[in-house]
């Protein structure tokens, strides 16, 4: 039996929108006002969404339950799989004692919390977003900042906010690839349009982050470093997105801003070192010094992580891994059981790509790193068990949040809210980013929001005489500022920042910043649509038929062999250096 989605169940779009928005409004109420724990708010919101889907939208109970189960399964894999592995890798570094060396190294560059936030939350987080995405950047950078001694709320909050600028080009440009496939606009013009919007945000974001941490006056004290960080990132993001495409802007901009800021800090230091209130003054034990080989060994988990996530992002490697290790199946009872408003049956597939998933890349990085940082695999297994215990509530929260998102999408509630925004006429370009923001808030993914709304953005823009690339790109740009308040992202950040049970505090920390940045992007897009049209790239639509090209598995396997050799060389070099040091008498007391 096939059930057809209903977009306006009351035949009164205003009333239908009010009812469809109830589950989302509940999330805001539960986290901001009621200060409810994340998993509790998510489970109740899912139940409310299912109740409305069944009683108002007429969705069969069976389909509502299956939809929630489908979302929960996706939450467990690949989202929770990635989060668990990211925190596991960090915990291995802490357990081995190597993170103490990293902390000493960071303090030797700068013990100023403002500058550490720029280096780790903004620049390194952007790099990780470009390579791994899907929660890894926030999970890793928040854990690193907490390990360095940051207030957990500030660590998690600023990592969420810093993660806005790079999200559009995350996971080697997947959000833009999906937007292109759904809308029919080629990837490059979408990349160019996004690359002419987000750099404006990227320039001001470092100053904005430091102002959140320390206040405007303290941010002004380090304005030279803020300018170096923001301008280098924004320029490289603009250049790579406009001339190289959507795959590398985050990788290039993230690495570039790290290198430029670290180089700048060799020649410039702030007049005073800023720390959190009631935090002891920074001290570096000058009696302790580390050799280059010891520093490399301490950073080994993150060096291997970087190599792995870059490799896992290369398409031939993905193809080879998927050919050897991916199970795809139609979700029983749900596949093709829902008919969209346009009459098409909605496919409901689950891809268990256990080899090519980003979480698997992080797991391999952790397994390679365990002996290199001085742990046994028995100790590593103990760390993994402790990590699972640490993340038990976040795992439940993420599964519930994704179940919530899938029920909203499959029942038609998301489309009800989108329909209102699409009927705003000439003002639609202003509201186009809001649609992306809504999609990412619900699904937790800019990629998913683009799959959901890119066609709607395209069709609506055409109907009002605006170039569709403006609104399709706006869906992506608006979505990036919805990421910081998505319940899924909040759960990930809370898990990494030791804030489990305090998700409401984190949500209240980020929500106003999400609305401020969304308003800025809405104004930029409105100007692009009607005032600065010369910014819009010239392009031709994709052909309706694409040639199917079989992946070159030989190339993928060759790359994997090269990767294995590279990891073996790195591991051998570190182990040999460690043995030599152990054999050399310590002459310094």
TrEMBL record:
One GO CC term on file: plasma membrane
Pfam families with a match to the protein in the record: Lactate_perm
Protein name per its UniProtKB record: L-lactate permease
Membrane topology: Multi-pass membrane protein
Protein function: Uptake of L-lactate across the membrane. Can also transport D-lactate and glycolate.
Cellular localization per UniProt: Cell membrane
NCBIfam families associated with the record: lctP (TIGR00795)
Keywords: Cell membrane, Membrane, Transmembrane, Transmembrane helix, Transport
Transmembrane segments: 12-32, 39-59, 71-94, 115-148, 154-178, 198-216, 222-239, 251-268, 296-314, 354-377, 389-408, 420-442, 513-536, 556-576
Family classification: Belongs to the lactate permease family.
InterPro entries from the UniProt entry: Lactate_perm
Single GO MF descriptor: solute:proton symporter activity
Principal subcellular localization: membrane
């Amino acid at each position: 039996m096939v059930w057809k989605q209903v977009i306006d169940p009351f035949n009164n779009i205003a009333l239908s929108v009010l009812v469809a928005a109830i589950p989302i409004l509940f999330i805001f109420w539960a986290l901001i006002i009621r200060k409810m724990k994340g998993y509790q708010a998510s489970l109740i919101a899912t139940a409310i969404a299912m109740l409305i889907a069944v009683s108002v939208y007429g969705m069969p109970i069976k389909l509502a339950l299956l939809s929630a189960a489908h979302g929960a399964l996706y939450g467990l894999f690949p989202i929770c799989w990635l989060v668990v592995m990211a925190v596991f890798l960090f915990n291995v570094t802490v357990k081995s004692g190597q993170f103490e060396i990293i902390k000493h190294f960071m303090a030797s560059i700068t013990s100023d919390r403002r500058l550490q936030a720029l280096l780790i939350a903004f620049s390194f987080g952007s790099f990780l977003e470009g390579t791994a995405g899907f929660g890894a950047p926030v999970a890793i950078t928040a854990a690193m900042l907490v390990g360095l001694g940051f207030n957990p709320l500030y660590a998690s909050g600023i990592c969420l906010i810093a993660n806005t600028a790079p999200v559009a080009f995350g996971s080697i440009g997947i959000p833009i690839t999906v937007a292109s496939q759904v809308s029919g606009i080629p990837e490059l013009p979408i990349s160019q349009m996004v690359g002419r919007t987000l750099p404006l945000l990227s320039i001001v974001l470092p100053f904005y982050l430091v102002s959140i941490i320390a206040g405007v006056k303290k941010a002004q004290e380090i304005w030279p470093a803020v300018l170096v960080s923001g301008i280098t990132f924004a320029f490289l993001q603009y250049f790579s997105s406009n001339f190289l495409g959507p795959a590398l802007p985050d990788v290039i901009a993230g690495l570039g801003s790290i290198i430029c800021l670290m180089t700048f800090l060799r020649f410039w230091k702030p007049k005073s070192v800023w720390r959190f209130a009631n935090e002891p003054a920074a001290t570096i034990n000058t009696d302790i010094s580390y050799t280059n080989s010891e520093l490399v060994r301490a950073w080994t988990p993150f060096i291997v992580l970087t190599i792995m996530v870059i490799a896992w992002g290369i398409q031939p490697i993905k193809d080879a891994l998927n050919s050897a290790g991916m199970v795809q199946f139609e979700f029983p009872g749900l596949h093709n059981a829902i008919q969209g408003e346009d009459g098409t049956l909605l496919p409901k597939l689950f891809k268990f790509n256990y080899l090519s998933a980003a979480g698997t890349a992080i797991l391999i990085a952790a397994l390679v790193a365990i002996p290199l940082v001085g742990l046994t695999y028995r100790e590593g297994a103990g760390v993994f068990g402790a990590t699972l215990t640490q993340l038990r509530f976040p795992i439940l929260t993420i599964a519930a949040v994704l179940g919530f998102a899938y029920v909203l999408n499959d029942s038609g509630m998301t489309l009800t809210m989108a329909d209102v925004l699409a009927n705003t006429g000439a003002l639609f370009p202003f509201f186009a980013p809001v649609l992306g923001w809504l999609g990412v808030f619900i699904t937790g993914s800019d990629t998913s929001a683009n799959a959901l709304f890119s066609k709607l953005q395209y069709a609506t823009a055409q109907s009002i005489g605006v170039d569709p690339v403006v609104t399709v790109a706006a869906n992506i740009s608006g979505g990036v500022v919805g990421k910081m308040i998505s319940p899924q992202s909040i759960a990930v950040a809370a898990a990494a920042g030791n804030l489990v049970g305090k998700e409401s505090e984190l949500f209240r920390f980020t929500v106003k910043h999400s609305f401020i940045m969304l308003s800025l992007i809405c104004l930029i897009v409105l100007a692009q649509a009607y005032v600065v049209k010369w910014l819009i790239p010239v392009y031709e639509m994709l052909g309706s038929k694409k040639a199917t090209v079989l992946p070159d598995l030989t190339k993928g396997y060759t790359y994997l062999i090269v990767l294995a050799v590279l990891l073996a060389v790195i591991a051998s070099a570190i182990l040999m250096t460690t043995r030599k040091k152990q054999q050399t008498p310590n002459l310094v007391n």
